[in-house]
Amino acid sequence: MGSLILRKAARYLFPIIMLFSIYLLLRGHNEPGGGFVGGLAAASAFILNQLAFDLQSTKKLMNVESLTLIGVGLLTAMVSSVFTMLDGHPYFSSHWATIRITPEWHLAIGTPLIFDLGVYLVVLGVTLAILLSISNFRKSSS
Amino acid sequence: MLYAVISGFVAAALLPLLHRFMGERSSLVAALVPLALTAWFASCFSSVVSGEALVSRMLWVPEVHLELAFRLDGLSLLFALMISGIGTLVILYTSAYLRGNAYEHQFVVATLMFMASMLGVVLSDNLILLFIFWELTSFTSYLLIGFDHEKEESRKAALQALLVTGLGGLFMLGGLILLGQAAGSFSLTEIIRLGGMLVGHADYPVIVGLILVGAFTKSAQTPFHFWLPNAMQAPTPASAYLHSSTMVKAGVYLLARLSPALGGTETWIGWLTVVGVLTLLTGALMASAQVYLKRLLAYTTVAALGFMVMLLGIGSASAVQAAVVFLMAHACYKASLFLVAGIITHETGETDVRRLGGLARFMPVAGACAVVAALSMAGLPLSFGFVAKELVYASVLDRFLTIVPVILASLMFILVAFQVGIKPFFLGAWQLSGKPHEAPPAMLLGPIILGLACLAGGLFPQAFAGALAASAVAAISGSPVSDLNLHAWHGFTPELAASALTFLLGVAAVFATGYWVRVGNAMKPLAEFGPDRAYFAKLKGLNLLAVWQTRVLQSGSLRRYVAIIVMAMVSLFVLSALRSGVVPVLTRNTPLNLPVLILGLLIMLAAVGTIIATSRICAVAALGVVGFSVSLIYVLHGAPDLAMTQLIVEALGAVLLVFAFLHLPSFHDRKRWIGRFQDAVVAILGGLVMTVMTLMANDIQLAPSIAQYFAETSVLLGHGRNIVNVILVDFRGLDTMGEITVLAIAGTSALALLRLRIPSKGKS
Q1: Is residue B646 within 8 Å of B629, Cβ to Cβ?
Q2: A residues 4..23 contacting B (CB < 8 A)
Q3: Pairing between β-strand A106-110 and β-strand A96-100 as defined by DSSP bridges
Q4: Which residues in chain B have Cβ-Cβ distances shorter than 8 Å to A71?
Q5: What confidence score (pLDDT) does residue B557 get?
Q6: Closest CB to B719 among A73, A96, A134
Q7: For an engineered disulfide with B284, which of A29, B41, B412, B543 has Cβ 3.0 to 4.6 Å away?
Q8: Which of A11, A24, A20, A86 is nearest to B725 (CA)?
């Protein structure tokens, strides 16, 4: 690890993979993709950084603890459907709002997207929690 | 009413946020919530006492008969007013009692949560809902008892209370479910409407038995009483609130609530009376040997709960009246005395009654409150306790078997009232070092208001409590509301004679306090055989069992874990195949095309390669070939989502192995042929079963396929063209929720385990 090529590449690849992971998350409803694979892709971006650099730089890049990601993600997924309950619908009924951008072009946004965002965060958090702490484990015991 | 119950939980959730901005004053704001609730319940007063119950219902999970159904009738209102009213005072009290404690707002959070749960218990009109709130009260009680979590006794006591009431709760759940099935409805209103019909049901004895265990554990009845005195480890506000005036009465509430449906039989009367009498005897005897303020009060609480259970067991009109009035009086004076005891300890740091005395000079207000409450507890005329005690005597006078224990317990009440309410303030002189002060107003407000309630109930019982008590009695007996005619003075009656006798005996007992303590100490060895000991013995046994099974099952060897999991799967499959007699037959052949065939061969080759690889890196690479080929097969079969996920998982898996390389045992460890043979057997069996299962799954169709439905409605209902994803996040969202929860738990545990190792490694 620590090769110059890898480091240079990682610096450019990181934003691209992150963007791609968000793209995967958003397109998931109509094309292959979704929160799960999006979260994995995002995790791999961080792991790439970890391989190229070290834990400190990855932690700085993450800015939040992976545990926080897990918690926030779980909460997001859970809460995403609570509001529909207030309307008297059963839990996990979806709600959709359609935004008209132009007469032919409209965008449907719904609670499943928020739910998927929660999935994305949990997957990202769990993957990073396990991988980063195992890589850290090596450092401290060797 | 749903909002009334939820408001406490919402307030509890918001309080930490508020605390961040307002600091300690946030508790005062928190006290507004129970205050508002008290006001709301009070505003329902007139309509409820006129016999009209408030009902609110909302479907929650109709499939399991779970309905957010709440009902406010006389009995519920009585409890609700106690819970929210005393809750207000206790939170105010806490704000001063725990001033300076860094965790003060957490205590208030738990108290608010408890209050909301307790309101839920007394307002629920659905058995399952009631159970949920019931368990929540146990849980919050656990938090409150263990508040001082750095002390081992606190943790132990908290766990004990949780285990005892939790175990009772499980029994009760069984009873409630059977009850719901027997009645054909989980609605309490419906069940009570059935009246005595359930008594003849075949399951009746079982239902009563299970529910009684639940109620008895919660209300600290013998032989489950031992958790309550231990629960005195909780900070005093919690003891005053949970463990004297409200939570421990949840069991009494449940018995009262179900009386019209289950009561009146010999089983019911017998169990309740016997256990009630035993409890009040136990409480009274154990109280005699105590010297610590809170323990004295705790054991008399046990006795008082025995009173109520016994009275409900007797079940006559006068007994039920007595139970209700006694319950009100007890809540007032016991909470007040607890708060005063808290004041004494808070200001002097002393808990031993023997060393306290002459405090009235320093804290006259607290002293006055203590006297009023003590008079009520002792049951002297012009106090609420007197009215209640006269009613109790009136309902048991004709039964010799009950009157003797009742008089005994009452004289013990006098003794304890003297020791807690009179002696520390008026007897002797202040001998300890330091100069105690009067408590701050926030702490005095509770005892003052409760003391006034004791007086009001004693002087004008009919005006103060008549209507509410009558309406609660109506709810318990299941008959329409009728006037109670409570009087401050009943005239010269046999009850009064019994009271006079009790008083004389009580005064004698007060003079013989030293003797009592000696008798109590002499009996202490008996406690060695008590249920408290049995509890700890069982707990120890359970721990030993856990240690043993962990040692056997959790060897720490990954290889053995995998072997256990695979072999468990294999044996389950074989067992169920044998039992159902299904022979795996292939009827439908999936046509193979060339690319899939090639990939299949590649996978097999790579698998062989993994086995014969001479170094770990080769094995990982070969395994990677397997994974990537599988994802290619997904692509060929039109599952791009799956393929994509599989690809990333493969890549991350390889990274994981790279990270973990250094910690894995040497690759050549398992070259011995016996180990390899075992591994081969496990692998081949696992593979075989998986193959057969996959082929069978392709073959067997138990229900009509829903694929068509998903395909048709995906865009219509789910607004998405990717059916897989629509199923994941919308149609089967709850499943996904469960999955990510499991994932989160796994991730958190992995993190915890890995962090656990680091320091020990770092040191070595």
Answers
A1: no
A2: none
A3: antiparallel
A4: 744
A5: 75
A6: A96
A7: B412
A8: A24
Name the band, by pLDDT with cuts 50, 70 and 90, for residue A142.
very low
**Nearest one of B141, B154, B158 to B107, comparing CA atoms:** B141
Look at the block and give the residue holding tokens 């957490």: B106
Query: Residue B187: which of B228, B130, B225, B121 has the closest Cα?
Result: B130
A115:B722 CB<8 A: no
Average pLDDT over residues A58-81: 87
Provide the domain limits for residue A71: 4-141
DSSP B1-48: -HHHHHHHHHHHHHHHHHHHHHGGGHHHHHHHHHHHHHHHHHHTHHHH
Structural domain tally of chain A?
1
Whether residue B741 lies within 8 A of chain A, CB to CB, comes out as: yes
Please state, in angstroms and rounded to a whole number, the distance separating the CA atoms of residues B581 and B182.
36
Interchain CB contact of A41 with B (< 8 Å):
yes
B84: pLDDT confidence band, cut at 50, 70 and 90? very high
Instruction: Give the mean model confidence (pLDDT) for residues B388-407.
Output: 84
Q: Which amino acid is at B486?
A: L
Structure token pair of residue B597:
């065939």
For B461-504, the pLDDT digits (tens) are: 888 888 888 888 888 887 777 777 787 777 778 888 888 888 88
Question: Residue B725 has which token pair?
Answer: 């994803």
Q: Is the bond preceding B223 in cis, omega lying within 30 degrees of 0?
A: yes
Residue of A nearest to B735 (CA): A92
**Contacts of B318 by beta carbon, 8 Å cutoff, 6+ apart:** B391, B394, B395
pLDDT band at B760 (very low <50, low <70, confident <90, very high): very low
What tokens does B744 get?
């989160």
B656 and A CB contact within 8 Å? yes
**DSSP conformational letter for B124:** B
Dist CA B289 CA B507 (whole Å) = 17
Query: Residue B691 in 3-state DSSP?
Result: helix
Give the B window 711-730 contacts with A, CB below 8 Å.
717-722, 724-726, 728-730
Q: Which two tokens stand for residue B50?
A: 């006129």
Answer yes or no: do B757 and A141 touch at CB < 8 A. Answer: yes
- For residues B356 and B425, what is the distance between their CA atoms, to the nearest angstrom? 8
Check whether B89 has a pLDDT greater than 90: yes
Residue with tokens 């959790």: B554
From the list A88, A108, A126, the residue facing B744 with the nearest CB is A126
Verify whether the Cβ–Cβ distance B663 to A138 is below 8 Å.
yes
- The whole-number pLDDT of residue B764 equals 35
pLDDT tens string B96-151: 888 888 888 889 999 999 999 999 999 999 999 999 999 999 999 999 999 988 88
**Best mutation target, A46, A117, A133, A139, to test chain B (most B CBs within 10 A):** A133
DSSP state of B440: P
H helices present in B44-123, as ranges: 45-49, 74-97, 104-123
Q: What's chain B's average pLDDT?
A: 85
Residue (of B397, B420, B220, B188) closest to B305 by Cα position? B220
CA B91 to chain centre: 20
Q: Residue holding tokens 């593979």?
A: B687
The helix (H) or strand (E) run that includes residue B456 is: helix B441-459
Length of chain B: 764
Assessment of whether the complete model's pTM goes beyond 0.90? no
* B537, pLDDT greater than 70: yes
Cβ of A36 within 8 Å of Cβ of B728? The answer is yes
Taking only the tens place, the pLDDT of each residue in B293-350 is 888 899 999 999 998 999 999 888 888 999 999 999 999 999 999 999 999 888 888 8
Separation of alpha carbons B750 and B614, rounded Å: 30
Give the number of other CB atoms < 10 A from CB of residue B102. 7
